[in-house]
Write a structure and sequence with these properties.
Layout lengths: L2 E2 L4 E6 L2 E6 L3 H22 L4 H51 L1
Antiparallel strand pairs: 1-2, 2-3
Length: about 100
């Protein structure tokens, strides 16, 4: 849960620790903090550890894994899109050239 202090500072709680963060969008900062808090709590249940540093590192690795999986998917889609756009552009050029020669 995020609380804006009106001076660009947002108070959030992550894994029972309070942090003062700066940002222009308190709602988004709260969403990020909530995501990290949920991830840390899930990891702590699975890892059966009370060491908050260990939980934070494992949560960070988990989040990094999620990010890299999504980035690879995005890069693959973007590459496919770019290849398809080039193919369509080439086909359009051919049609226009044929039209110009026929006309």
């Amino acid at each position: 849960m995020a609380q804006s202090n009106g001076n660009g500072s947002v108070r959030v709680e992550i894994y029972d620790q309070t942090y003062q963060l700066r940002g222009s969008d308190p709602e988004y900062i709260g969403e990020l903090a909530g995501y990290v808090d949920n991830k840390m709590r899930l990891i702590s249940q699975q890892a059966s550890t009370v060491d908050s540093l260990r939980v934070a590192v494992l949560a960070a690795l988990n989040i990094a894994d999620e990010y890299l999986i999504l980035k690879r998917k995005y890069d693959s889609i973007a590459s496919d899109y770019h290849a398809r756009a080039e193919q369509l552009s080439g086909a359009l050029d051919e049609v226009l050239e044929e039209s110009r020669l026929a006309g």
